[in-house]
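User: I'm curious whether this sequence folds into something compact or stays loose and floppy. Could you predict its structure so I can see for myself?
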Amino acid sequence: MRPNNYITAYILMCIILFLLLCIGKCAASDDICFDPPTAGDIVVELEKARIMERENALLREGNDELEKQIDLLKQVIELKDKQIDVLEKTNKEYENLLKTQKDLYGEMIKNSRPSLLDKITDTLGSMGIGALLMGAILLL
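Assistant: Here's the prediction. I'll summarize afterward.
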C-alpha cells in the first residue's frame, strides 16, 4: 500500500472505533461486546494502523535526509562547474603564453642568423681590406 492508503486506513479505523464507542455510550451500556472474531479483527486493524503510522514517520525522515543529500550534491555540481570554468580559462591563457613564447623564440632565432646581405657585406668588406693591404704591399 502507498503512504496515502496507510493514512486513509488509519483514519478509517479511528472513525470506526469512535463510532463504536459513541454507539455504546448512546445505548447506555457500560460494556461494548463484540463476538471474538470481530474483536480480534478490530485489534489487528488498530495494530496495523499504529505500525503504518510509525512506518510513515520513518519514511518521511528518510525522505528528508535524501532531500538534504540532493541539495548537497547540487552544491557539489555547482562547485565542479566553476572549477571546470577556471581550468578552461587557465588552459586558454597557457595556450596564449605558449604561442607568444613560440613567436618570440622564432624572432630570436631569425635575428641571431646572419642574413644574406650581412654575409655579402662582410665578404666584400673583407675583400676590400685585403685588396687595400695587397695594394699597400705592392706599392712598398
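Summary: The chain is about 90% helix and 0% strand. Residues 3-139 form one domain.
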